[in-house]
Amino acid sequence: MSAADRPAGTAGYGEAAEQLAVQYESVSFTEVHRSLLHLYPAAPAAVLDIGAGTGRDAAALATLGHRVVAAEPTPELRAVGERLHAASGVRWVADSLPSLPLLTAEGSRFDLVLLTAVWMHLTPAECPPAMEALARLLAPGGRLALTLRHGPVPPGRRMFDLPPEHTVALADARGLHLLHRGERPDLHGRGGVHWTELVFERGR
Questions:
Q1: Fewer CB within 10 A of the terminal residue: the chain, N end or C end?
Q2: Is residue 86 a contact partner of residue 23, using CB atoms and an 8 Å limit?
Q3: How crowded is residue 3: how many other Cβ atoms within 10 Å of its Cβ?
Q4: pTM, entire model
Q5: ∠ CA 65-72-127, rounded to 5°
Q6: DSSP 119
Q7: Residue 37: which of 60, 59, 55 has the closest Cα?
Q8: What is d(CA 62, CA 76) in angstroms, rounded to the nearest whole number?
Q9: Considering the chain, what percentage of its residues have pLDDT values greater than 70?
Q10: Residue 114 is part of a domain; what is its CATH number?
Q11: What is the extent of the structural domain holding 50?
Q12: Is 5 contained in some domain?
């Protein structure tokens, strides 16, 4: 895939895939999701990890007994994830927001959708169609967990510091109701960076 064909939000990730793998895998799934785990469905559930990176979370969820699809548009990260977690049983797909065309075409529905450190790569104009796509992928009663990044943007990356209220309103307009809102520090100790955690539930 040429640079021109890649989603703009993935800028800077492909060439840094090996270094990012070390960073991503240096913290555990439990550390990252600690305050949200009680809101995730019991296994076995259908789980979609969007922007799965190197598959840390996808592999952990598969180990817990979930059926996991990992969507990652950056081929270098996807290759690292497939290598690191080859025995996990995770199904990898090359799909991306805002429209998630491959998964949408499959017509699959998921009990849990994760967007961990992903939403900030969308422009404000991309957020409404992205939320529309996510709502379609959720099964009745399914939950969407996403994080919002706040703080300085690293050189060479495309990120937007979106107010939580904007995302909550987009979700609510599509029948996704807020279950949880929390804040956490950056687990990698990056100066000035902190995160908002949001979990939504689709009506049954």
A1: C
A2: no
A3: 9
A4: 0.88
A5: 105
A6: G
A7: 60
A8: 22
A9: 88
A10: 3.40.50.150
A11: 29-178
A12: no
